[in-house]
Design goal:
about 70% helix, alpha+beta
Length: about 270
């Protein structure tokens, strides 16, 4: 019963690391998906003294994905109620040209500044409205949220790694006498420590497959999909291949590294 309890402690500790890592993956994907949505609704308005070819505007910066010339008809309609047709046509010619620039992705504040600078290099462009205040606020909120989640995940990982190290150290003490006797008979270090490594690898496998089943179930659950759909994003909550390989690799790596440190420490004490 005590052996099962010890195994359970190690498995739960590994699961906490795995869950923190997967939560970070989900948050990162959610932010990237949300940035795609923001990019589709965010645009920059450029004002030009004369008409510019859309192809020329696209060449200004690779972040520009689409250019649309805004029609001045709605403005002219409000101003031309008592004007003659000839004056209306003259007004159309004298009005500046407005262009709506759609971007390939949601840019950083630095990329917005660079784009604005590139646009002003064209002598025909007199004004650029980048809605920088709204953009910067939204971008900083996304960045803050990601940083908070990253910090939380890092704290969980550090604390849990220390707990796993302590748990493996307890197992070493339990088998210390047997390891010492094997050493007196000339057994190699890896052979004396086989029990510790077997414990670490088996528990890492158990934790990884438990996490696989849990995340696969959550990714297919309608309620979870509905929550993401309510904020207008559609992401891969759990990739059965890539995410599982990452989970498995991290879990086994942490277990083996900590077990190795404990074994080397034991050798030095001898």
């Amino acid at each position: 019963m005590k052996s099962v309890k010890n195994h359970l402690s190690l498995v739960i500790a590994l699961l906490s690391i795995i869950f923190s890592m997967q939560v970070f993956f989900i948050v990162d994907r959610s932010i990237e998906a949300y940035k795609v949505n923001l990019a589709s609704s965010y645009s920059i308005i450029a004002v030009s003294k004369k008409q510019i070819n859309s192809t020329d505007i696209l060449k200004i910066n690779k972040i520009i994905s689409h250019v649309q010339e805004l029609s001045p008809d709605s403005v002219i309609k409000r101003l031309s109620s008592d004007m003659k047709n000839t004056n209306v046509e003259l007004l159309k010619l004298t009005l500046p040209k407005f262009y709506k620039l759609t971007l390939a992705y949601y840019p950083t504040p630095q990329e917005i500044k660079e784009l604005k600078s590139n646009l002003f290099e064209n002598n025909s462009i007199t004004k650029v409205e980048d809605f920088s205040h709204t953009h910067d606020t939204t971008y900083k909120l996304l960045l803050l949220f990601k940083n908070v989640v990253s910090l939380f995940a890092l704290v969980v990982v550090v604390v849990t790694v220390l707990l796993i190290f302590k748990e493996l150290r307890i197992w070493q003490y339990k088998h210390n006498e047997r390891m010492t006797i094997m050493g007196l008979f000339g057994a190699a270090l890896w052979l004396r420590s086989a029990v510790l490594f077997r414990l670490a690898i088996v528990d890492a496998l158990v934790a990884s497959f438990l996490a696989f089943g849990t995340f696969l179930y959550l990714s297919l659950h309608p309620w979870v999909k509905e929550q993401f759909g309510s904020i207008g994003i559609n992401i891969v909550i759990f990739n059965p291949v890539d995410d599982f390989l990452a989970i498995l690799g991290v879990s086994i790596s942490i277990s083996i590294i900590l077990a190795t440190l404990i074994v080397l420490g034991h050798k030095e004490e001898a």
